[in-house]
Design a protein that fits this description.
The complex is a heterodimer of chains A (315) and B (288). With 315 residues, chain A is an all-alpha fold. Chain A has helices at 7-22, 30-55, 63-79, 84-106, 111-131, 133-136, 150-172, 175-185, 187-192, 197-223, 228-231, 234-247, 254-269, 274-291, 295-303, and strands at 142-143, 225-226. Chain A contains 15 helices and two strands. Chain A has a two-stranded antiparallel sheet. Chain B has a single domain (2-124, 136-276), classed as ABC transporter involved in vitamin B12 uptake, BtuC. Chain B is built from eleven helices and two strands; from the N terminus they run H-H-H-H-E-E-H-H-H-H-H-H-H. Chain B has helices at 2-31, 38-56, 64-81, 91-113, 138-160, 162-172, 174-179, 184-209, 217-231, 236-256, 259-276, and strands at 128-131, 134-137. In chain B, a hairpin with a 2-residue loop joins strand 1 and strand 2. In chain B, helix 5 (138-160) packs antiparallel against helix 10 (236-256). The chains are: A mainly alpha (315), B mainly alpha (288).
């Protein structure tokens, strides 16, 4: 808590961001595509980590917000012809609204209720999107014709990923973040020393849902075509969980490390091994929780312990 | 008449809901574990019955001891060697852990058995009788009474057996139970074993009237969530009340709505409960 100044971390972060930002001017194709997808997942996992990694409330239905984001912006774009930025913003706000509606009752209860409600909501909304064919085209899928260029998505995702990571860093070093950590340590004690625990959780949840909604809407737009089972897919949530977990939940860099490593692994293993891939991912989750409860970041920082204060892990 | 028929169907279905949700409720009540892999335990019980029927031509009702024993062993070993390792960590560790177990079980089953839907058809599968025009299939009626009987016995054993009282003591205060000489980790393993065994039993019933496939687990897990929230999380008799309520509401809503919308109705119900009465209809659920 002694270091409030930006310091070395920020400078390194900025240099990395600048290098990444000008990189597509020199290389094209495969690497740009892979990095675009990695940035997308850093953004998503970063949101999951900010809410769940810091507070210990586990959201098993984050795909709700990618799904709602995709459909809100898709429908506005296709049916009403609104410009893309307006649609994207509307997608974020719709996700935020749903997060408040879901979070308000459940975040006051035990973490189990939050996990259950979010888990069930994703499934319920997927069914609604399947059935409400007059609006969503149901299982036929929605085609979005208007689309940015690949390079634009690269920059936009880089910006959003940087924003989420930067926001996480900023929150960690400010009052709101202390509240989040206090909730994770001991919620009752936090409430007793004057943290409005319900509001802190709800604000964080709404904020992360907003970003997930925006990312979801842009991704649906980038791919150009989606069905309910694509955008409300439980595997989207699974990836957010495992990427945060792999890096070590509740640290600024965990989603960056987790998303980069896992997305590269997935790219190598390829989509044709999807069933094996899920078995492997399941085993990784179990092994990480059993043997590396602080994730890769936690394990490494333990080995290279440079400060006397251990890194804050969640579980 | 359609209404009465739907009501009857709902009540009969509610018995199964109660059966597999009581295991979920037990695990949550004793260990605070939200078992995301719950639906996979139903799936495995169903497949044990299916394969015994296919290969050994064993009657589904005679295969019950096998799925009971098989799932008890699975539950016991899972808790003993995997979930117990995080027993002292915050409960979220167990949510994520069971989430990983869900992925492993569902996808290994998918690789082994493919996604083909299967069911068990016996000579008496379609047999039924009717009372004032309401059709009641024998299988569902027998299943209903066994289900309610099993949940009732579970509750009775928890209150009247030595092991049951040890489980309750552990649930109330783990440290105190340990000081009183209870082997807490052993109790946890037995509890998960019992929960899994009952759940597997429900799976064996499910296969007699529904199609099963390796990916079937998720909707069952969600239904179990809804049932225990309705009845009160961690309160075993609540599973019967919650199961019957959800069975009837689900069955009635399919008269007017397609199955997709009735799923939405289920969620809406869960959501309303969380807002207005998180401790369940009985008010005896664990909230804080």
């Amino acid at each position: 808590m002694n270091d409030r100044r930006p310091g070395r971390g920020l400078i390194i972060g900025l240099i990395v961001a600048v290098v990444l930002a000008i990189m597509p001017l020199f290389t094209m194709g495969y690497y740009v595509n892979l990095l675009t997808v990695i940035f997308y997942w850093i953004g998503l996992a970063g949101c999951w980590n900010l809410m769940c990694g810091y507070t210990g409330y586990i959201d098993f239905g984050s795909a709700v917000y990618t799904g709602v984001g995709s459909y809100v912006s898709g429908i506005l774009l296709v049916r009403l012809g609104f410009p893309l930025p307006v649609c994207t913003l509307a997608a974020g706000l719709a996700a935020l609204l749903i997060a408040v509606i879901v979070g308000w009752p459940t975040l006051r209860l035990r973490g189990a209720y939050f996990a259950i409600a979010t888990f069930a909501l994703a499934e319920a909304l997927k069914q609604v999107a399947e059935e409400w064919t007059s609006m969503t085209e149901g299982g036929i899928g929605l085609t979005v014709t208007y689309r940015l260029s690949d390079i634009d998505y690269y920059w936009v995702y880089l910006g959003l990923a940087g924003l989420v990571v930067g926001l996480t860093w900023w929150i960690e070093h400010h009052k709101h973040g202390y509240g989040l950590k206090a909730i994770n340590e001991d919620e009752e004690a936090a409430a007793q020393v004057g943290v409005n625990t319900h509001m802190v959780k709800l604000k964080t949840y709404a904020l992360t849902a907003f970003f997930i909604g925006i990312l979801g809407s842009l991704e649906a737009n980038r791919l150009g075509y989606f069905k309910p089972e694509d955008v409300f897919d439980i595997h989207i949530t699974i990836k957010m969980v495992i990427m945060s977990l792999f890096g070590g939940m509740g640290t600024v860099l965990s989603p960056v490390i987790g998303a980069s490593i896992l997305q590269i692994i997935e790219d190598v293993l390829g989509a044709e091994f999807i069933n094996y891939y899920l078995v492997i991912i399941g085993v990784i989750i179990v092994v990480v929780i059993m043997f590396l409860p602080r994730g890769l970041v936690g394990a490494l920082s333990k080995i290279f312990a440079r400060s006397s204060r251990p890194k804050q892990g969640v579980i | 008449m359609l209404f009465l028929q739907a009501l009857t169907n709902g009540i009969l279905l509610g018995g199964i809901y109660a059966l597999y949700s009581s295991g979920f409720s037990l695990m949550f009540g004793v260990m605070g574990v939200v078992n995301i892999a719950h639906g996979e335990m139903i799936m495995l019980g169903a497949f044990i019955t299916y394969w015994l029927f296919e290969i050994a031509k064993l009657d589904p009702f005679l295969s019950l001891p096998f799925s009971l024993a098989g799932l008890f062993a699975l539950g016991y070993l899972l808790q003993r060697f995997i979930i117990n390792r995080v027993a002292d960590e915050p409960p979220i560790a167990s949510y994520i852990l069971t989430f990983g177990i869900h992925l492993v079980l569902a996808n290994i089953a998918l690789l082994a058995w493919t996604a083909d839907p299967r069911t068990v058809t016996t000579t008496y599968s379609g047999a039924n009788f009717s009372v004032i025009g309401i059709i009641i299939p024998y299988i569902k009626l027998v299943t209903f009474f066994i289900a309610v009987g099993v949940v009732g016995s579970l509750y009775w054993l928890l209150n009247h057996s030595r092991m049951g009282r040890a489980i309750q003591a552990t649930a109330q205060d783990r440290e105190m139970a340990r000081l009183m000489g209870i082997n807490v980790r052993q109790i946890y393993a037995v509890t998960l074993g019992i929960g899994a065994a009952i759940t597997g039993l429900a799976g064996s019933f499910v296969v007699t009237f529904r199609h099963i496939e390796p990916g079937m687990g998720l909707p069952y897990t969600i239904t179990a969530f809804c049932v225990v929230v309705l009845g009160g999380m961690g309160y075993i008799p609540g599973a019967i009340i919650g199961g019957l309520t959800l069975g009837v509401i689900g069955s009635l809503s399919t008269i007017f709505l397609t199955s997709g919308w009735s799923m939405a109705v289920t969620f809406f119900l869960l959501f309303m409960m969380l807002i207005f009465r998180p401790a369940g209809i009985t008010g005896k659920g664990i909230v804080e």
